[in-house]
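Comment thread on ticket #2218

A.B. wrote:
> Attaching the input chain for the structure job we discussed in standup.
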Amino acid sequence: MESPPIVLASRSGARRALVESAGLSARFMAADVDEHAIRTAMHAAGHDASAAALELARAKARAVEVAPGTVVIGADQILSCGEEWFDKPADRGAARAQLQRLRGRAHVLHTAVCLLRNGHEVWNHVACPVLHMRAFSESFLEWYLAAEGEAILSCVGCYRLEGRGIQLFSRIEGEQSAIMGLPLLPLLAALRGQDIILP
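C.D. wrote:
> Ran it. Output below, let me know if you need it in another format.
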């Protein structure tokens, strides 16, 4: 039986790499949604970061135009530390300030994913890995910012664990793929459960 077409509604290179490395045959379409407005509205309404991340994932999945029968994967991620939610930094100065606020503390990556089939949500999941950032020195911070350059501006936490970002941490709890933006093991199980990929 031929499996239905799959679309990943994301412009994230890390998510695309995860999908491809798992051997999934998928198209990649950038979803045009006002992430800031959705996040702000969810926060103002008293929702937690997990609920907001899931709402963003749903909005992205619904935003792409696909043919009937297509399975759409929507995903998004919010970083929380205490009561504060973090966005992707606008520039290097914002990245420095964010890393200084996270330094020596644990934070959570609320990583949401949902599946839409024929426009209807058939599954969703939120993974919440916890990352413990070490109390690194100012010298290390300056070296790190210079070495990583503009790349960290595309990451909500200002780090890529597959690169130098791993040096920021003393301990990490959770699935690596969820930290990178897509809880791959639960997603694969859901795709099998929906008869989208081979069981």
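A.B. wrote:
> Thanks. Noting for the ticket: The chain has a mean pLDDT of 95.
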